[in-house]
Amino acid sequence: MTVSDVQHARAAAFRALHRSGVFVLPNAWDAGSAVLIAAAGAAAIATTSAGVSWSLGRRDGQHLSRQEMTDAVARIAAAVDRPVSADIEGGYGGGPDAVAAAVRAVIDAGAVGVNLEDSSAPGSGLFDPGAQAARITAARAAAAQAGLPELVINARTDVFLFGIGAPAGRLADVIARSAAYAEAGADSLFVPGLLDLAALSELAGKVSLPVNAMAGPGAPSVAELGQAGVRRVSLGQSIAQAAYTLARKAAAEAVRAGSYDAISGADPFGDLNGAFPDR
Question: Which of 54, 82, 215, 239 could form a disulfide bond with 219, CB atoms 3.0-4.6 angstroms apart?
């Protein structure tokens, strides 16, 4: 595997975004959505496992194969001129070797970051901190072996998303996990399901890793999240969710009512078509 100078430069640029202030990381699910997100001015792009899964006609929740996700990442990374971070879900296998294989695959596909969950599978609880730390260590070693030691590893913990443990103890659990994950080689901490500004502020003040929050409709603004100490704001499945919701509503309206109001606000064909390159 040979990592290009361009990929090294994108990795360095992505790493630099985490050092100060707050940045938005919109999530793409295919090359087309990535091109439009880049055209909107995003400095970097992440993938969304939900969007990729839906684009393949199946539900989210670790139902993709490593190859299916890698193929999507390759198309996205080839379509844009900025850093791409790959959502590799739970690593496509429980052991460190599976995580290492996933990391090598997405680096080869052009990614400069990964998002790795500590969920073993939906409804099956979380890996204990030691086991997840070993998986992160394997990811870091795999990145170095692949020639991209600067890969940004976003350690996702689903303590709040899945309501693990008593509510009063969840923040302490996340703080303890962050320490273990940082020691193992993680570069940032992703806590989906946590949007309380006071709790985020406390978390950001007690962990060494930059904090990533997942936002969407009803969430605090990017500015408010930044004031709470959050460095990275991703949108998760929200953009894909809105797009697929519109597809369903527009089709249902045309089939059942014979009208087209749901799609009346679309960009003109020429404007949208012109946002894509000729290649």
Answer: 215
